[in-house]
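[SOLVED] Predicted holo structure with pyridoxal-5'-phosphate

Edit: marking solved, answer below. Original request kept for reference. I posted the sequence and ligand SMILES and asked for the 3D complex as structure tokens.
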Amino acid sequence: MNLFVPSFETDQHEEVERKTETHSDGGVWTFKGNKAAKEAASVSMKGILATLIDNCSKNINKTILPLGHGDPSVYPCFHTSVEAENAVVESLRSGAANSYAPGVGILPARRAVANYLNRDLPHKMKSDDIFMTVGCCQGIETMIHVLSNPKANILLPSLVYPLYHSHAIHSLVEIRKYDLLPDQDWEIDLKAVEAIADGNTIAMVITNPHNPCGNVYTYDHLKKVAEMARKLGLMVISDEVYNQTIYGDNPFVPMGIFASISPVVTLGSISKGWLVPGWRIGWIAMNDPSNVFKTTGVVESIKEHLDISPDPSTILQFALPNILEKTEKDFFENNNSILSQNVDFAFDALKDIHCLICPKKPESCTYLLTKLDLSLLEDITGDVDFCMKLAREENLVLLPGEVLGMKNWVRFSIGVERSMLEDAFVRLKGFFARHIKTQVT
Ligand SMILES: *Cc1c(COP(=O)(O)O)cnc(C)c1O
């Protein structure tokens, strides 16, 4: 039996019944798909993961292990909190959440997000500093869209959630990459940022905690980011969607702490922390004690953009205060403890797979990122080839780093059932033994 991988299910019957027809009167249709979307989507993970799943062998007696996918919520051990479920049921039953919501989101939801984030911030945000979005994804889309202009460029880390890429391409914003330093706890190469920023740089994106590197930045490092942003006049967009998924020793520091040095846009959602990415609710938060985003017109643009975009369901918005306030600490601690044990196991098991090296043990998020040492392998040309052959021979799917902008790296999901992880490493060992270089040249 194969594991349930929702994004790849199609209804075979429907597809068979549909016939492709040309224009019935011999004319031509005046419309066609847009090339920009095709290019933007080509960097998406969904595309490559679908190809890898297709590449798995139906005739070998092994379940498909989808460790390239990053959604722990499909596994029974990662179930959302009962308080969150109750909040949604109550919201639904109340009858108070059946209407349209304003573009920026309903006040109770915005107030609840402000309170939730303010717990860790010296400069308190108000409800009006918060905008509700359809998951963090819409926060990304909104920010890139409202900041774009014909000459614009955006600074993205070399490893970044692919949607930043896609929306920058779609909005014709030039992408400039800065490096993360694997040997320095994946810190940002700040000199590189200075070198690539200019007067047309609309923003610098940071991800903290970092998916997929699994690090959290220190207070000192983030302070340097803020100081540099001030010097260069840059907007910092901090993607903190994983702020609840932390199991290492480094504490999480929200970028908003440094808002008095340089204003910060924080993006977040409940998708990862509450294990409910299908609920589609998130936020854009303005940590802006000096009203910079107001005077530069950014706030107005965001409101206008959200007025003409789809909103998160009112049912979820209405439930959000209870979701954020009532979920017990234990819930997060329990999830993080499972993840921490999985990381310990995988990090240890990697010692037998010499072609995959993890430079830093993750302390957050749900991934293990490894560097592929091709010199040890006989007939593997790169990360995509490695993952393709692994899928075909072992029905094990890992994500090639190339989709994330890191050629010859490979990403494991560790937010899975422990037994899957154990099975994966048995298969990897077999694969490595078959492909290891026999002669030293
Ligand atoms: C998952 C993820 C997102 C998208 O979050 P949603 O709330 O599911 O839209 C954004 N950024 C990063 C870094 C992510 O890992």
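OP edit: Residues 329-349 form the longest helix (21 residues). Thanks to everyone who chimed in.
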